[in-house]
């Protein structure tokens, strides 16, 4: 089922590129390693990169968004806009004007709250580790009570959500098609390199499958 | 010369990771294909992905940030926070708690104004095309008067700027070093694929060097 449009998720430009498709939104949120969290401090915008994890229709944010914002979130919650963007390619038109980028982005508006329930917090932290490397949470030493207390996790319901996608070739004006300029798309992909073991890794511990398999299905 | 710290570019967490180094800030801004622009609408945050180009100590933003924001910028300017983040690797510690990401990010605070001078606007649009693919602006049909009028460019001075960098291996607690878990870094890189010519590309137009050479020196 699609997300319901709201005034602030209704586009003023390129409406054909916008949808409210839940499956696409989830896929983009899941593939992105970082999100950008916007909030308002003293009437002015602040945007910080952050790790996130989606569990069903909830987005969890790792709470290192600065002490002031977190304090605000402890009371009435924190109004946030969370945006993720995956760049799929550079769109090179004959005309400078029609240059673009192929991308998939998701914008989430809502009010984030600090997760206080210990079970939810523990599950959210597992999800945050697994969002970076699927399967990783089971391959680590789980957080102890002190570490859980030292970590803040924010919960943001996925209700006001929009997706924007641009794909395909450049859209040049007909008059430019006979011009001398090359046009097309340069695809971009994020690829993992060879894993770099920690300098203090004990001998005999091999690279686990969840590391070597990263990126083969989702992020 | 470094940028001068301000209250809102002074970190509340991990101060050792933050700097005001101009050269690093410029390199991160130049390498990133998209930025995330935050602004305030009706007291609430909005964050949208955007193309940007740096010219010396000015950041130009391609003005498709929505009509309301642009209208606001036409008068007193628009308070924005522009953030770019490059993800260099996934930091996999023995403990879930010490998981992290290697990244380079830049946060710019300031007031953006619409560029009205035609010469500055034309140069900024060239810079925006060259920011996506260096050398590309000279390999395209330049904007005509109608296209220039249809495009909005915002100018943001680079004065309130901070850089945050995390690099290197995971930082596990001493007590975890003898544990059974693999630890290390999975490097991530953005790589170009083979250029995809536009379906309507005239025969005999080869892929230019500025396309095949993308990413070999900066973005």
TrEMBL record, chains A, B:
Stored Pfam families: Pyridox_ox_2 (PF12900)
Protein name per the record: Nitroimidazol reductase NimA, pyridoxamine 5'-phosphate oxidase superfamily
Cited InterPro entries: Pyridox_Oxase-rel, Split_barrel_FMN-bd
Coiled coil: none
Region (Disordered): 199-219
């Amino acid at each position: 089922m699609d997300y319901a449009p709201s005034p602030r998720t209704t586009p003023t430009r390129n409406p054909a590129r916008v949808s409210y498709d839940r499956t696409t939104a989830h896929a983009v949120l899941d593939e992105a390693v970082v999100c950008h969290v916007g909030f308002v401090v003293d009437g002015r915008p602040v945007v910080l990169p952050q790790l996130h994890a989606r569990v069903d229709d909830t987005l969890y944010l790792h709470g290192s968004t600065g002490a002031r914002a977190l304090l605000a979130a402890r009371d009435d919650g924190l109004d946030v806009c969370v945006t993720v963007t995956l760049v799929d390619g550079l769109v090179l038109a004959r005309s400078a004007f029609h240059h673009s980028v192929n991308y998939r982005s998701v914008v989430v508006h809502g009010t984030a709250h600090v997760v206080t329930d210990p079970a939810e917090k523990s599950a959210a932290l597992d999800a945050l580790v697994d969002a970076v490397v699927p399967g990783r949470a089971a391959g680590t030493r789980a957080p102890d009570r002190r570490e859980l207390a030292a970590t803040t996790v924010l919960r943001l319901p996925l209700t006001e959500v929009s997706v924007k996608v641009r794909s395909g070739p450049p859209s040049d004006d007909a008059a430019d098609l006979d011009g001398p300029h090359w046009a097309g798309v340069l695809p971009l992909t994020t690829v993992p390199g060879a894993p770099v073991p920690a300098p203090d890794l004990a001998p005999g511990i091999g690279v686990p499958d969840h590391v070597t398999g990263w990126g083969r299905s989702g992020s």
